[in-house]
Amino acid sequence: MNDIYVIGVGMTPFGRHLDLDMKALTRQAVEAAIADAGVQKEQLEAAFFGNTSQGHMEGQHMIRGQIALRAMGIGRIPVVNIENACASGSSAFALACSHLKSGAGDVALAVGTEKMFSTDKARMFSVFDSAWDISRAHEIRDSLMRLGRDVTVPEGTTSPKPYSVFMDVYAAFARSHMRTFGTTQRQLAAVAAKNHAHSVHNPLSQYRVAYTIDEILAAPPITYPLTLPMCSPISDGAAAAILCTGEALKRLNLDARRAIRVLATVVQSGSDREESDYRSHCTALAAKKAYDLAGVGAADISVAEVHDATAMGEIIQSENLGFCEFGMGGVIAERGDTSLGGRIPINPSGGLESKGHPVGATGLAQIHELVTQLRGEAGKRQVEGARLALAENGGGLEGIEEAVACITILGR
């Protein structure tokens, strides 16, 4: 079977881009990836386009990828549109890998683009309302709120302003973790402080301001125990990756020293499980498959980008990925294990909390960061000696876990 390599990555700065449309954002990211790879757009043989919100925000429910790519002169190739909630970008990447492994082509593009920020706040926040079973929305919400039973919610710790329903979901997960393992709000703040500190050195990050733990605890509340800096913002942006087979790497005379090998890609949906059955979490199961495919273990990973839509998300996923025992995710963050220079640096990009979270682009932004790290090109946020990197990207909610989990392992 063909070895698959990432030969080019590109992304826009993440943030509020009211002056840029989907086509412009896509063009910026794809052209950057093409230039980074050293190929021509005519050499792309297939494209996989991730997006979740253009239908909701603009009414463009169909052929989004064909429209965005044709505007920059990419046509006459298969274009597959992917909607997989927050895991759309990583799903596009996984499908591009599968396309190349199948022998259907030698060079493929994976791109994710999202225009989410709007002056219409009601429309903007409601984009997340269908990332769970809308026919059972009230039942699901009530069930999730029971996860945090016996945890007292202090007065004044819920924002009077609109926010995403998924902040309530993560708050429920956080209260459950606090009740079961003794995780503290201060540990959540330690995760957020670490990620905001990392983002200071990322020129593409939406926010580049460091906060202390105490400043994060004193910040405006969203929903207990989450405060504003613990939560990912609404973002616009795009990210892209160009992949090729080992044969194409040689045939196109590309620089093999900057090519990063794809060791594993796993996409897995969730399942019904008991709250206490942590080892059957869809991300934990997907990670085990990915480690087996790559022939490595959690202890071998040099650096990781994980789906921290909130600080609680990072704690949960650091446990699912085997970087610590279940219940210890907050502890390892508080003692510095997951910071740059620590045992297992997580989210050197700043993560979703600080880098931003344009949903369809997020998974490919993780790939962008990890490729940069493995090439040794990350500057002040560089993880010294990085050789193996893992991206975890989840999407939606079904039951008490993500509807889909994507794991990617890359190596030098």
From TrEMBL:
Indicate the segments forming the Thiolase N-terminal domain, all copies: 4-206
Q: Please provide an example of a Pfam family that matches this protein in its UniProt record.
A: Thiolase_C_1
Under Gene3D superfamilies, the record lists: 3.40.47.10
**Source domain of life:** Bacteria
Q: Which residue ranges does the record assign to the Thiolase C-terminal domain? A: 269-397
Q: Which GO terms describe its molecular function?
A: acetyl-CoA C-acyltransferase activity
Q: What protein name does the entry list?
A: Thiolase family protein
Q: What is the lineage of its organism?
A: Bacteria, Pseudomonadati, Pseudomonadota, Betaproteobacteria, Burkholderiales
